[in-house]
Amino acid sequence: MPATQATQATTHDNRPTAYAAPHAETYSLEEVVRISGLDAGTLRWYEDQGLIEGAEEDPYGGRAYSPVHLRWLEFLNHLRSTGMSPAEMNHYVELYRAGDSTIAARRELLEAHRETLRVRSREFGSTLRYLDWKIGFYLEREAALVRAGASVPNAAEA
Length: 158
Prior knowledge:
Blueprint: E1 9-10, E2 16-17, E3 27-28, H1 29-36, H2 40-48, E4 56-57, E5 63-65, H3 67-81, H4 86-98, H5 103-147
Antiparallel strand pairs: 1-2, 3-5, 4-5
Helix pairs in contact: 4-5
């Protein structure tokens, strides 16, 4: 069997991409909801905000999403779960769509966001240590009450 040359997939503006095959399978709205864990309203919100390009219509009038959509949704969900604002996410998407000349700007945006997360992580670490101390305090207090013969109500009784 002769070898065939792979066809390069392209984005909306005809830039090559390694993310999708030219005849990649598509996913229905229901499948994207199941795979991504997003609800349909959130998915529509991402589209309305311009964070993902709209899905094509399938032959039956439903929405057809590509593997590229799934990759974008995964990336955007990571950004959103870390507290990146929709405006910052939109800025990133605009930079991406502007092409390779914005790679440094995209990297810098993600580096700045990473630093924000590192600061928040240290703050959460401090808060977790405090909560651990407070929980330990309550455990010791409960044990002391039990030793003293006092009744310690459980959370449902308190």
